[in-house]
Amino acid sequence: MSKNKNHGRIISTPDLDQCLDATQLNQMEQSFREWVDDSSRADIRFSRQRILIIFLLIRYTGAKLNEVLVLNPFKDIDWVQHTVFLRGSPTGTNANHREVQISKTLSIEIQGTLAELSFRESLGNVLAVDPGFVRRKFYERAQACGFDKRLGGPEIIRKARAVELMQNNMPLPAVQMMLGHSTPNLTSSYISFSKDEIQQVAKIFLERESMRKTSARNSFFGKIQNMQRGDIQTSVDLTTIDDLSISAVITNYSVERLGLKHGRVITAEVKAPSVILQSGDTEPMCSAENRFKGIIARLTRGKVNTECVVQISDGVELCAIVSTAGERHLKLKEGDSIWALFNCFSVVLHVD
Q1: Domain of 145: which CATH number?
Q2: Together in a domain, 33 and 106
Q3: Best exposed site among 47, 64, 202, 213 by fewest CB in 10 Å?
Q4: Least reliable range by pLDDT among 78-82, 89-93, 169-173, 226-230
């Protein structure tokens, strides 16, 4: 049941040395928050809060600076659905306008900040700040963290967010839609994900990113293609937006409790210790229903265990935890071709 296509990216991943990583993005966010808290005068605090909101919107939506500066947060942020409407120009005539999902946590924070008296009494668009001033403040925060100021630029923050999402296995089409690419790269030849379904996937991903509700390293977002019910358990086959096929077996009770049906978008999770590695070019003859051929992207060796990250398709990585003794036996090294395997009983299904 292996599917492994090398799909071309619409989003080109920058050199990791040319943008901040997730830890550095968090450092910069913390620097902004401390900068706001350090202001004693109300007018200075108000000015800094505006810059913080601009940073948070770019950092978590991947929006362009000009898209955020024309945003009217009182009208363009849906506090119920937790979406931001980006129009790209003051008149909204840009054909590339879009709705971008944000986490509930971020939505509540921005709404609470805007509810403060200073914002309610401000005239016009509270985010209509001179772009040159915004850039200077972004550069200052980057330098305060010890980074090259260029890495703090709004465009680089936008790129860094794209890299962060892809490294965390958000499906590539969902990242493309978030960043405003006009032709999301829907890779599957026989399955169609609607715009609403891709947005649903983004919502699930962002909420999990915000809340960190699961310890599973490997998450796949897909649509149910087939269900075969048995006396006690049901076999569920889904296809992801990245055109990978995943098989799971769960109890009939779980099928009913989760309300699973053909065409429903769900999440499949596999813990890293459940993933088995096998070398060789030939597809393994084994009972594991889920078999993916990939390239070893990263190895982190410990005394007892080794973490192996396998790139199984463009933008999708699978993490395995194996014994260091086993890793030495296989003589693994970065760049090697490898098979990553897990059985259907190791897959846990989640619904929104």
Answers
A1: 1.10.443.10
A2: yes
A3: 213
A4: 89-93
Contact between residue 323 and residue 245 where contact means Cβ atoms under 8 Å apart:
no
And the tokens for 220?
């796949």
Q: Assess if residue 213 is contained within a domain.
A: no
Q: 23-55: per-residue pLDDT in tens? A: 899 899 999 999 999 988 888 988 899 999 999
Q: Report the distance separating Cα 168 and Cα 316, nearest Å.
A: 9
Which pLDDT belongs to residue 95?
Answer: 54
- Tell me which long-range contacts 300-307 makes (C-beta under 8 A, separation of at least 24): 301/327, 306/332, 307/272
> Are 121 and 224 part of one and the same domain?
no
Regarding whether 80 and 135 lie in a shared domain, the answer is yes
Is the model's pTM score more than 0.85?
no
Q: What is the pLDDT of residues 59-90, one digit of tens each?
A: 999 999 999 999 888 889 999 989 999 986 55
Q: How far apart are CA 154 and CA 273, in angstroms?
A: 38
- The span from the CA of 305 to the CA of 244, in Å, is 28
| Residues 139 and 246 grouped into a single domain | no
Lowest mean pLDDT among 58-67, 198-207, 215-224, 290-299: 198-207
Which residues form the domain of 124?
16-170+172-177
Query: Which CATH number belongs to the domain containing residue 231 in this structure?
Result: 2.40.50.100
DSSP of 193-227, one letter per residue? --HHHHHHHHHHHHHHHHH-----SEEEEEEEEEE
Residue written as token pair 């996937």: 201
At position 271, the amino acid (one-letter code) is K
* Edge-to-edge order in the sheet of strand 83-86: 77-78, 83-86, 98-101
**H-type alpha helices, the chain:** 22-37, 42-61, 65-69, 73-76, 104-114, 117-120, 131-144, 154-167, 172-179, 195-211, 252-258, 324-330
Is 60 exceeded by the pLDDT of residue 91?
Answer: no
Of 143, 248, 244, nearest to 191 by C-alpha is: 244
Local confidence band at 3 (pLDDT 50, 70, 90 cut-offs): very low
Q: How many residues appear in the chain?
A: 352
Give Cβ neighbours of residue 136 (< 8 Å, ≥ 6 apart): none
* Structure letter (DSSP) for residue 228: E
